[in-house]
Amino acid sequence: METKEFIVIVYAYNQIGVLNRITNAYIKGNVNIEKLNVAETSEQGISLAVISAVTSEEAIRRVVNLLNNIIDVIEARFYEPEDMLYKELGIYRNLKITV
Amino acid sequence: MEKREVKGAEALLLSLLEEGVDTLFGYPGGAIMPLYDELYNFEGRLNHILVRHEQGAVHAAEGYARATGKVGVCFATAGPGATNMVTGITDAMMDSTPLVCITAQVTADMLGKDFFQEADTISITIPITKWSYQITKASEVMSVIAKAFAVARSGRPGPVLISFTKNAQTELTEYSYSKQKRHTYHKTHTIEEAIRSAAEMINSSERPLIVAGQGVIQSGAESLLASVAERGNLPVATTLLGISSIPSDHPLFAGNVGMHGNLAPNLMTQECDLLIGIGMRFSDRVTGDTKLYAPKAKVIHIELDKAEINKNIKADLPIHTDAKLALEMLSERVIYRDRVSWFEFADRCRKREEVEVVEKLLSDTDGELSMAQVIDKVAAAGKGEAVIVTDVGQNQMMAARYSKFKHSRSMITSGGLGTMGFGLPAAIGAKLGVPHKEVVAVTGDGGLQMSIQELGTIMQSDIGVKILLLNNSYLGMVRQWQELFFKHRYSFTEMVNPDFHKIAEAYKIPSAKVTHYDELDSAISLMMSHKGPYLLEVVVRNEENVFPMVPPGASLSNLILDEKQ
Predict the structure, then answer these.
(1) Could you report the per-residue pLDDT of B277-305, keeping only the tens digit for each?
(2) Quick one: which of B92, B36, B107 has its CA closest to B60?
(3) B117 is a catalytic site residue
(4) CATH, residue A9
(5) How many domains are contained in chain A?
(6) Among the options B38, B54, B222, B454, which is catalytic?
(7) What is the C-alpha to C-alpha distance for residues B500 and B493, in angstroms, rounded to an integer?
(8) Residue numbers in A near B130 (CB within 8 A)
(9) Fold for domain B4-175?
(10) CA angle B197, B341, B329 (to 5 degrees)
C-alpha cells in the first residue's frame, strides 16, 4: 500500500487527557506520529494540534474518523503537505502567538 | 432554580436521580467510602446491588442497559476496584452499551504520588471509553454527570468513566442540575437525496437482503424495520446483536448472519444483488473474508457512526444517520415486489439447514443430549417471551441459533469482545431491569466459573434469574476449533468441574441436574415455573460442534454443515 506524509489538523477543547485521546487514535490505527505541535487558538479553551505521519490514505482516514469520534474534539481533517501551503495562513491566524 | 449546599457525594447521587437512575451495581472500598456513606441515605430511592466482583458490576449494568434501553450505572473504588472494571468497560465499548461507570480516586492533591490504591484510571480507560473525566472539585459534579449521561446515551451509545476524587466527594457545593442534550438526527438535503437513491436501488432490486444490527434496537426502529420490510417484501437477516429486532416468527425473517448463523441469510448474502446494512458494522464474524463478501451486491450502509462506514466493507451508498430516521424516510418510498424466485432460494436454504443440521440434532433422543435440544426446549417453554442472556462460546451460538424471540431487547450477549463470564452478571442486571419478564442465563461450565461468585449477589438480593448451565466439561468452542483446525489437539480445554448442585445449595439456590432427554421437559418446566432463582445443569455431549460454521477467514460461501466438510 502506498504511504506518504499526511498532516492532520485537530481542533479540540483544551482538557486534561484530550491529547492522550488524540495520540491514542494513532496507536489504535498503528500509525507512528512523526511531528506533533499543539497550541492554543485565539479562542480561549480551544487548542489546535498539527500532527504529521507517514502512512496510507486508508489508515489516515481511519485515524481521522476515530479523532472525530472523540467527544472533546471539535473537528479533525487530514491534508497532504502540498495542500497545507494554502491552509497554513488560516491556521496560524487562529493561533494565539505569544512572543 | 433553587440552590442548596450539599457534599459532592450527595450531589452525585442527586444527579443520578435527575437522570432517572433507580438501580446501580457496585462494590465499596476505601476511596469511595464517602459516596457509600451518602448512599446510605438514599435507601428507597436508589437500589444498590452489591456484586461480588467489580467486573460483575459492569456486566450487570450492561445487562440492565441492554434490557431496558436506559443507561447502566456502576460504582467501584479506586485502584483495583477500577482496574477490575476494565474488561466490562471494554465489552460495553465494543457492543455500544450506554454506561456511566463511577470509580473513586485518591484525594486530588495526592494524585500522581502512588498513594495507596491509586491507579491512573483515566489513562487506563482512554481506549475503552467514549468519554472520561476526573472530578477533582465538588462543583464539577453536576455538569460532569449531565454530560456523562448525555454522551453515554447519544449517537452511538457507549461507556463513560467518571473518576471521583475523595476530596470532591466530601467538599460542599451548591447543588443545581440541568440535563444536557446531544445529537438529534434531522432530515437534511443530503440524507433525503441518499434515501431517494436507496429507495430506487431497493425498488429495482431482484434479490435484496436487509441485515439489521443493534442500531435498529438502539434507535427504537424495530417496528419501522418490519414495516419497511413488509412494504417492500424484503427479507431481513439479523446480526448477533441485532437478534430480536424483528420477531423470530416474522415471515420475512431470514435468520442470523455470521460465523454460526443460518445457512439462508449467509448464502443470500453471497447471492443478493443489494445488501442493506442497517445499524451494524460489518464485523469479521459477519463478513468472513471481506474480499469475497457479498460479491454480487451493491451495498447500502445506514449507520450513525461515520467511522464504521467504509471501514470493513465499502458502501456503494453510505447513509450517515440513525436507523430510525432512515427507516422512517424509506418507508414512504419503498414499493412492493414479488421476488418469488429469491424467496424460493431462501426457502431451499432454510429447508437444507433444517434437514442437514437442525433435525439431525433435535431428533436424536437416545444418546447424550445436544445443546440444541436443550435450547429448543427452553425456547418452547419461554414462548418467545423470555429474555435470553448468554455467556460466550458454544452456549452462546446455540442460544442464538435455537432461541425464539417475540420482543426486542430479549437477546443479550457479548458480541464484539466475546467476554466469558458475561452471562451470569448480565442476567442479574437484565432481571432487575425487566423484573416482570423471565430472564434465562444460558451459560457453559467454563463461563459460569468465570463469574460464579455472582451467585452470592443473586442470593443476597434474591434475584429471580434462571441459570441454564450447559455442561460439556470442556471449553467447548475452543475445543471445537482445536478439533477442526488444530488436528484434535485438545490443549488445556478439558475442565474438571465442581459439583454445581452443591455450589448452588451453598448459595441457597434451588437446582437440578439432567442427563437424559426424557427428563428435560419436566426439568425445564420446573425451572421456568419456579419463583426465584434456579440453576438447571444439563449434561450435554462432550464433543458437540456448532454448525453451520464459516471457518475463520473463509468466505461465507464456504460455510460447512458438519465435521466431514
Answers:
(1) 999 999 999 999 999 999 999 999 999 99
(2) B92
(3) yes
(4) 3.30.70.260
(5) 1
(6) B54
(7) 19
(8) 69, 71
(9) Rossmann fold (3.40.50)
(10) 25
